[in-house]
Design brief:
Layout lengths: L7 H12 L17 E2 L3 E3 L8 H17 L2 E5 L5 H15 L3 H6 L2 H4 L1 E3 L14 E6 L13 H28 L6 H5 L6 E7 L11 E4 L5 E6 L5 E5 L2 E5 L6 E5 L1 H6 L9 E3 L7 E8 L6 E2 L11 E2 H15 L15
Parallel strand pairs: 1-10, 2-3
Antiparallel strand pairs: 3-11, 4-5, 5-6, 6-13, 7-12, 8-11, 8-13, 9-10, 9-12, 14-15
Helix pairs in contact: 2-6, 3-6
Catalytic activity: gibberellin A1 + 2-oxoglutarate + O2 = gibberellin A8 + succinate + CO2
Family: Belongs to the iron/ascorbate-dependent oxidoreductase family. GA2OX subfamily.
Keywords: Dioxygenase, Iron, Metal-binding, Oxidoreductase
Length: 339
């Protein structure tokens, strides 16, 4: 049988060996520690299209309140057809079921394949997952997809729908702070945004291992389509809480750039993914990003953060990961703070 999963176990074991730590494979009688699941704020976006102004305003206020208090919320009646979501999931599963060597070496999808964490120097930096990180600009290039041309066709439709939804939500958040919703249409287009297709294989190791290490997103906002397995956790009131999966909803979270632009009104919240020891998990994330030379200033003065471009922000993240092993993020850009 051809192996489709990357050699996560081998690499994680090597990191443990280098750290002088032993590990044990879980048995069938192992029970992961159960964390209480929370329900994210659930928002019905059909109310944004209501004939009644009070319903439209209440929906917009719910979006903004959740973005401030949680940094996360989930949406239903979002305008993206169930058929598109199902097609995309089928194509995603087909892609990941392909041989590992093919995914890793053949230039598939413009060499966008990632797995584990090549930069990890210790077990806590390792992610038990694989992903395709695909810029929207590459979706029109048939040669990048090879035999997966049906994936390209669905992905183009899927990305366009996600982009429309992202702009709708960003417009609501921008207008709440007294600015024109067209702000994002000027700096965020398909040349800057991307999709990340994720697979989290079942994990036979300690329940402490990460599927995706704790992090904040470095964009304006992210829209996540996940399956029924669960595993997403976020920081709420200084504690990790598990997010109860809802297949009928899409999850939206605020990124670092929106927190900086809003002067900390909206919150970019730390989150992570924990793998399941029995079953694999799939998700797809759409990231709303500006061009690299876009200036991220504050929507009001006095600003908490100094002005910076998205390109500068990404370069600083990469430098911190290289030097420290982890992202520092927005604290690097606070005014009147010594680093």
């Amino acid at each position: 049988m051809v192996e489709s999963s990357p050699p996560l176990l081998h690499n994680y074991a090597e990191l443990l060996r280098q750290s002088g730590v032993s590990f044990a494979v879980q048995g069938n009688d192992h029970q992961n520690e159960v964390m209480e699941e929370c329900e994210l704020p659930l928002i019905d976006l059909s109310n944004l299209r209501s004939d009644y102004e009070e319903e439209r305003m209440a929906c917009a206020q719910a979006i903004c309140r959740a973005s401030s208090e949680w940094g996360f919320f989930q949406v239903v009646n979002h305008g993206i057809s169930l058929e598109i979501l199902r097609k995309m999931r089928r194509e995603q599963v087909k892609l990941f079921k392909g041989p590992f060597e093919k995914k890793a070496n053949c230039g598939l999808l413009n060499n966008s394949y990632r797995w584990g964490n090549p930069a990890a120097t210790c077990p806590k930096q390792f992610s038990w997952s694989e992903a395709f990180h695909i810029p929207l600009t590459k979706m029109s290039e048939e040669a990048c997809f090879g035999e997966f041309n049906s994936l390209r066709e669905v992905m183009v439709e899927y990305a366009a729908a996600m982009q429309e939804l992202a702009r709708l939500l960003a417009g609501v958040l921008v207008m709440n702070l007294g600015h024109q919703k067209g702000f994002f249409e000027e700096i965020c287009d398909e040349s800057t945004c991307f999709l990340r297709l994720n697979r989290y294989p079942s994990c036979p190791l300690s329940p402490e291992i990460f599927g995706l290490v704790p992090h904040t997103d470095s964009d304006f906002l992210t829209i996540l389509h996940q399956d029924q397995v669960g595993g997403l956790q976020l920081m709420k009131d200084s504690e990790w809480v598990a997010v109860k999966p809802n297949q009928d909803a899409l999850i939206v979270n605020i990124g670092d750039l929106f927190q900086a632009w809003s002067n900390d009104v909206y919150k970019s919240v730390e989150h992570k993914v924990m793998p399941n020891w029995k079953v694999e998990r799939y998700s797809i994330a759409y990231f709303l990003c500006p061009s690299y030379d876009s200036l991220i200033g504050s929507c009001k003065e006095p600003s908490i953060y100094r002005k910076f471009t998205f390109g500068e922000y990404r370069r600083q993240i990469q430098e911190d990961v290289r030097m420290r092993g982890h992202k520092v993020g927005l604290p690097r850009f606070l005014l009147n703070v010594q680093h």
